[in-house]
Amino acid sequence: VSNKFLATKRVSSRRIIDQPNSNKSKQNTGNMNECKCPQILIVDDDSFNIIALENLLYSFGFSIESCFNGQEAVQAILERISSPCKADCQPYKAIFLDCNMPVMDGYECAKKLRALFEEYPTYKAPLIACTAYVNNREKEMAKESGMDDYCTKPVSKQKIQDLIRKFDLSH
Q: Whole-model pTM above 0.70?
């Protein structure tokens, strides 16, 4: 799917990609009372990495929001908590976090999100480290910071399928 055909909306430096038309999609059933918020949050400081992961996730029918650092990700979660779209506003189904970013890295972001999820458990979502580093120390740091899984860049379609199954992310 070419990125130029994706319906996008900018929110500060964050970007939202709407879910593709799909008969399986809850968002396209016409029910005005259903949550229309993005289902997946991608946090990475490299726009190429964001677009690559967006396109993979988009091909599985997910709507996506992306941020460029952990601080923006924490703000996105806080906005969803404080200003839900509907009474039954849904949490993100998963959050993909790059580990090494400016402003707030993925490790610190995961710790802050875990604290938020303790306070607001209905907004809890799997935190998935997504990084180019493949050494055991990076994996251990991701686990220690509260991330639920780890994937290396470039992320494969098979890995996304495995994560969808593992965390039951299907629509």
A: yes
